[in-house]
Amino acid sequence: MLAIKSPFAFISDRHSGEPFLTSTNQSHMLFDSRTPIEQHRYAKLEADLAADFWGETANGRVQSAFIRVAFSILFSVFCFFLGIDYVICLVWLVVTNLLQAYDYLRARQLSEKPKRSSRRNRFTFAVLLSCISYASIIPIGWFSGGFALKIIVTLLTAGALVSNGVRGQKVPIVGIAVSGPYLAATCAILLGEALFTRSFGVTETVAIVSLTLMGSIYFFESIRFSAKNAEILKKSLIENLYAKENADQANSAKSEFLATMSHEMRTPLNAIMGSATLLKNAVNGKSEIELLRTLEEAGHSLLELLNNLLDLSKIEAGRMDFESIAFSPSELVEGIKNLWANPIAEKGLDLHIEFENPTDLALLGDPNRIRQIINNLISNALKFTENGVITLKVETTSDAVLFRVTDTGIGVSFEAQELIFDPYQQANIKIAGQFGGTGLGLSTSRKLAKLMDGDLTVESEIGFGSTFSLRIQRKIANAADLPKTADALDLDNQNQHDNMRVLVADDNYSNRLILSRFLEIAGIQTVMANDGKEALDLATTSQFDLIMLDVRMPVMDGLAACRAIRNLGNQNANTPIIMVSADAAKAQIALGLAAGANGYLTKPINPQKLFAAIENAIEAAECQPANSHNSSLTA
Asked: Mapping DSSP to helix (H, G, I), strand (E, B) and coil, where does residue 147 land?
């Protein structure tokens, strides 16, 4: 329950600049229970909302200025025809509208910067002067005109006070500045009649007493109404804003948590998937290879789930970044075909690739996100199809490119076709139990499609399969901007790296082990460091052909170590450096390149990514002048 102050205490609070929201002891206890930081945030929200009230009041004066000017002209004409001297009417009209112009100017200034207390004071003073001038015609008309003019000024006063009382003001001191002069005008009439004319008739007495009572009632009612409404509204809005800010902070904390968990989860994933890859090349038994392939696929499934969770969190927080680079749809589809050909064949299904129109053009967009969506669609098709064909069809139109994934699986009911795009939802519980999954893939994929100004839709019928259509805008790129395609790398065919000496710094033993094994199989000699400080010490005394630094390390992180190595001025000052991290965000990559790295490698690491990153980093270092290490190359 809010405790309402008197109008004058309320005005005093606003004039002094103190928060004008008052409360009962219980509310004070709730406010005092907040931490000092929370109280500061609460007070800031309160001040911002008070500024909004002042801004709305000033805008109201700006918008009603034309009506007030038009009414002043009309009323001066009435006064002239009802007996007031034309000089008085003209002087009143000129002075009133000059003050109206001053009122309008101050209102415009305050509406632009409502937080300035000096502008608030000048605005209130301008409103008061304008209303005093406006109300001055009331006693002039009463004492200078006849009975008809007295009725008109009575109606004018009552109408002004009633209007202000009904509308109220979010800033009470402005309400007093607007209503006060009209009440003062009624008091001037009473005083003038009592002291000078003393000619009250029945009509005059009833009119002036009624006017005075009505004016007084609506004047105080206006202030009370304004104070109460402003206080309640402000309490509600501040609590809502405070709750929203807390929700935003919670969302930000969730994003930070997921980013940290991503790093921590990718570290063991890197060990699992890397070990599986190494063992597949070390064993010959068919059953052992099959088990290792299962292990590798499980790692990929965990990685896909982790990526979907992170993407969904970034989308909800409005932090999702997209590239806009040239890519070839045909090459993109060819890579997807190579990825899925074996898993689809192992399940006894066929994979068909169809191009309806020529697709040897270059498009502008984010090929990684498009590939992510299509891979998710094919993964679902493989999961829910036991017999038949999975088809990836590419169609181009004048303004769009469509990727359609069609299967001959179980299908989706009409009722569930929108439900499956909701986070954590699947068509029904039986499907979730039989086929597994979290229901994140399609939700994330549609959100990604929409953020790229496209869409993801489904057409399906129970028992007759499904067709998922990804539509993206057709933005033509220059074919010369297409990246050069590299042949797939093989661990057994890396002789060009023989006799290379590489420094690997990572605080996690399993990461160091996997990296060293990948490199050693390719004939590369590795030297290990547990943190950035050890890497810096080794780089100070020994020469290396390549340095790989994990971003997050104790004692000295990878970014600091990279900057320190670049500043050594010795044989390693221009050595190619690759930053290694689980964080693939653009901001993090930019930090690594700004620190002097020549490349950026994300976990989990596979041989293809590793040797592609090495080639890119060496090429980038060779293309740079000495002591210049800003690169845009990543792998």
From this structure: helix
User: Cα–Cα distance between 44 and 37 in angstroms, integer?
Assistant: 11
351: amino acid identity, one letter: L
Q: Please, are residues 385 and 343 in contact by the beta-carbon 8 Å criterion?
A: no
Cα 534 from Cα 49, distance rounded (Å):
54
Phi, psi torsion values for 131, nearest 5 degrees: -75, -30
Q: What is the dihedral of CA 255, 259, 260, 264, to 10 degrees?
A: 140
- Residue-wise pLDDT for 57-66, tens only, equals 888 888 888 8
Please, what is the angle between helix 117-135 and helix 86-112, to 10°?
Answer: 160
Alpha carbon 93 to chain centroid distance? 52
Q: Say if CB 123 and CB 106 are below 8 A apart.
A: yes
**Opening angle at CA 460, ends 457 and 464, nearest 5:** 150
Nearest to 251 by CA among 201, 294, 207, 314: 314
Residue ranges of the alpha helices (H) in 473-555?
509-521, 532-541
Q: What is the pTM of this model?
A: 0.49
Tokens (6 digits) for 157: 């006063």
Q: pLDDT per residue over 150-196, tens digit each? A: 777 777 776 676 666 555 566 778 877 887 887 788 778 777 777 76
Distance CA 538, CA 439 (A): 48
DSSP state of 194: I
Alpha-carbon distance values, 227 to 14, 40, 182, 224, 384 (Å):
11, 24, 20, 5, 64
Give the Cα separation of 261 and 264 in Å (integer): 5
Find all residues with CB under 8 Å of 615, minimum gap 6, and list them: 486
Pairing label, strands 389-396, 525-529: unpaired
Cα–Cα distances in angstroms (integers) from residue 236 to residues 46, 114, 242, 548, in the given order: 11, 21, 10, 55
Q: Give the whole-angstrom CA distance, residue 139 versus residue 157.
A: 10
Distance of alpha carbon 615 from alpha carbon 602, whole angstroms: 15
CA distance 580 to 512: 11
